[in-house]
Amino acid sequence: MNSKMKDEYLDNLFEAILTLETPEECYNFFGDLCTVLELKSLSQRYQVAKMLSEHHVYSDIVNETGASTATISRVNRSINYGNDGYAVVFERLKRKEGGE
């Protein structure tokens, strides 16, 4: 992560997120923390990343998610040149689904 982003408030937020144990707790916490539009935007970016990692083409991603090609490009750039955050999550989810 860009060291310019790191600060005490962000550390506190991430520590709070790490205490959540169930999807229901996530719905409650993020519902309090974020606006509906912010949550929709985050979930859309995550879905775009998931589809890109599954090798879907831009036109399919636009049709399914409603994301702009600019958003898809930004997410793709993060996947290819970012901090590997998506890769860590996708790998852990894959292991979890496989029962490992």
Automatic annotation (TrEMBL):
Going by the entry's taxonomy, the superkingdom of the source organism is recorded as Bacteria
Known InterPro entries for this protein? Trp_repress, Trp_repressor/repl_initiator, TrpR-like_sf, YecD_YerC
Q: Name one Pfam family in it.
A: Trp_repressor
Q: Which GO terms describe its molecular function?
A: DNA-binding transcription factor activity; sequence-specific DNA binding
Specify the protein name. TrpR-like protein, YerC/YecD
